Amino acid sequence: MGEIEKIMRELDVDSQLELEDIPNLDLYMDQVIQLFENKFKDAKRTGEEKILTKTMINNYAKGKLFFPIRNKKYTKEHLILISLIYQLKGALSINDIKALLSPMNEKVTENEIDLEEVYGGYLQLAAQNAAAFKEDLQVRAAAAEQQQLPEVLLTASLVHMSNLYRRAAEKLVDRLEQK
């Protein structure tokens, strides 16, 4: 069990870009990258891995994953959307992310929703997810320890759960696109 607790600490599952981490002034691209690199540096698998690059941001903009920037500066709303994209890209395709975020982007640009409030709701759910994950991982690790090749079985179990959650998320996106 000590190994699982070490892995959970290394995963830094509680790390999120909190609303208070986002400055109330607009940022240039290099500042955006630095903010994300500093916030999520512990989430990297290797030291060479990049959390966010200029190319990524430009691709998100070209793909219309967020509304256009002004004067080469990114607003608090842009940073919230980039944070959501960062979280979503681990499981969803860029097309799925666009389908998911497009209706929200429209509502933001038309001042129909408060993006900070929506993101606050996401952060609450993410905190609940992190707590549930830690508990679930302990249970799965204990069950795997009773079997031969526990590391293989635990890894396969985690990948299976990941696939189930990803497929459920894809179904939600498909339903959103049908509306």
Automatic annotation (TrEMBL):
Cross-referenced InterPro entries: DUF1836
Stored Pfam families: DUF1836 (PF08876)
Protein name (Swiss-Prot/TrEMBL): DUF1836 domain-containing protein
Taxonomic source organism: Ectobacillus ponti
